Amino acid sequence: MEPMTSFKVSLKLLSFVLLCTLILPACAYDSDDDNYVDVPKPSEQFQIGIDLAGVDPDQVIYLYSSGYFYYSLDTRGKEILDQKFFLDGRDISSGINNGSVYINGGPLDGKEHELKMIVGFKTGTGSLAELAGYEMYVGEYTFKLKFIDSSNNSAVLNVRQTVDANNNLKLVWDRPQGFDVVSYEIYSNEYTPHLLATITDPDQTWFVDQSYVYGYKSYQIAARLRNSQQVKITTYYTVSYSSIEAGHIQGDRINRNSLRTQITNTNPYPCKYVVEYGYENKIVEADRSGEIILPGGDFPSWISFHLYLLPLTADVSEYKSYPYVYGSLSDRMLEAHISLAADLHGNRLVGMDFRNYYQYDVSTALPTFSKAHNLTLHTGCIMKASNTGYVAVSDSRNILYIYKDNTFNNLLFQIQTQGLFFCLTDNNLLFVQTNDGFDVYNILTGNQVGSQQLISSPDEVYNQGLVVRISSDARYLYVLRKNYYTSEKQLELYEVNPDYSLKLLRTESDAKISAISFHPVNPRKAVIEYSDIRFSLVDVETGARTTVAGYFQNIDPFTGAVLYKAADYISGNYEVKVLDNSGTKEIWRMKLANINPFADTRLYNNLLMFNGYVMNLTK
Length: 619
Hints:
Blueprint: E1 5-13, H1 16-23, E2 45-51, E3 60-64, E4 66-70, E5 72-74, E6 80-87, E7 90-91, E8 100-104, E9 113-122, H2 128-131, E10 135-148, H3 154-157, E11 160-163, E12 169-172, E13 181-188, E14 194-199, E15 206-209, E16 218-225, E17 232-238, E18 249-255, E19 258-263, E20 272-277, E21 282-286, E22 291-295, E23 302-310, E24 324-330, E25 339-343, E26 348-352, E27 356-361, E28 367-372, E29 383-385, E30 391-394, E31 399-403, E32 411-416, E33 422-424, E34 429-433, E35 437-442, E36 448-453, H4 458-463, E37 464-470, E38 476-483, E39 489-496, E40 502-509, E41 513-518, E42 525-530, E43 534-539, E44 545-549, E45 551-555, E46 562-565, H5 569-573, E47 575-579, E48 586-591, E49 601-604, E50 607-610, E51 613-616
Parallel strand pairs: 3-10
Antiparallel strand pairs: 1-2, 1-10, 2-5, 4-8, 6-7, 6-9, 9-10, 11-12, 12-15, 13-14, 13-16, 16-17, 18-19, 19-22, 20-21, 20-23, 23-24, 25-26, 26-27, 27-28, 29-30, 30-31, 31-32, 33-34, 34-35, 35-36, 37-38, 38-39, 39-40, 41-42, 42-43, 43-44, 45-46, 46-47, 47-48, 49-50, 50-51
């Protein structure tokens, strides 16, 4: 402790005669030599020590605008009779309490202010005047004070954040002007502030926190001032950071049993990752690259997890003490969840949802283009593309829109349909099935160029159902007739003449026929589906066929591979299989997740689509 500072006190002596006069104005007092004691006059001055806990009272003292001023006195054995404090002449003595005085509302004007201290001590003479309190030593000292705000000094320090050469969080502030700074203290501003560092160089106005990587964190920065009673210029700073959200955690299936997630963390701070997942709270670690591999179930699968962000030097076993975000990883879902079609001309996929058209890269199924539409759609609306690049879209009112290309900028024409099958052929025709036959339109002109009635009388429309399909070159036509009353079915194959009249080539009667479709690219091949869980790949010209047990799904228009569900799929096997383009050799099979047994499965350029999800089989 530094030595006490002394100040002088002077004697203030009130006579005994005056005392008697004030108290006993009506009494007479007869003194004689026997009752008289000659008390020598004490010294006019003596030294009293004052201690301000190391603060130099001769210099400007810094105090909070509202707080305690602490002091202690060495009275050299003298008893204190009274103390008074005045701030700029205002009596604040009511705040005196056991070695301190509370100052309330000190001016925050940056100017010096006067604190005057007046203390009275007993003289120790033993005189009646002293005993009556009219004789005492009186000491006076004046302090110079400057007040600072204890609650908000953000403008003084002006804290801001940046990064150091290693991308660690770096807090920078200004050195307070007009103050003699001794040191800086940096605290983690938690429920109980935790001291992170003390900087003794007043010119070092920065602090690097290598432990910060993500999330909410608040700091308290205090500039300790010289010649103050623990007074600091203090401010608080909360880190600004970018939240990691669902869009920053992208997943992809890399094989049958594994899902990979790539975390996009836009915050620059070096970190490593720990993922906790599953009922058993299993963990997977990842370095700062943010790539994490998790075990995946049957396609499509979904995993929820907690993603913890740790400093590079952190002990992984303590991962739960660090910030985390909630995430989930699944096989990717397509945006176009209403309808998807192959655009062989543009070597891409096209599709739509309730608000937008989409184009997709045919190798990755990642969207490359989207455009808002103003159509009113339901989940049964369909989009189709021709092998020559034209696109057709149906809406909820059964209006069919024909576009020049898949940018959807050039509407060629639109027609009202009966909501039945339609397709675009390779020779720029629009084929539309009707209740009793079909109509044909020229895509380039929008003109109807042909029509055929396949049911001769109006009564047969109510008795008979039609399924009409045309080959991609518009040369062959299949008609499947079903009698609603007898359940009899007849399949008819026709050759289409230039005037759209029909030449019957072959018929097949089988009550178990359920559907018919042409190969999307090869006009000489077709698929006949049967209700007893089988389908046949048919050569249209020769009638030769290969029959497979299972539920036909589609022929990949890019590769010709045949996708189908196993015959016991509905019973719980949930396995899908792929045949080569000859339809004779199995080249792939996989079990699907039991999320919707009746959902269609499609294959486009080895991209498997199921219930809105997509998986690349080439991986």
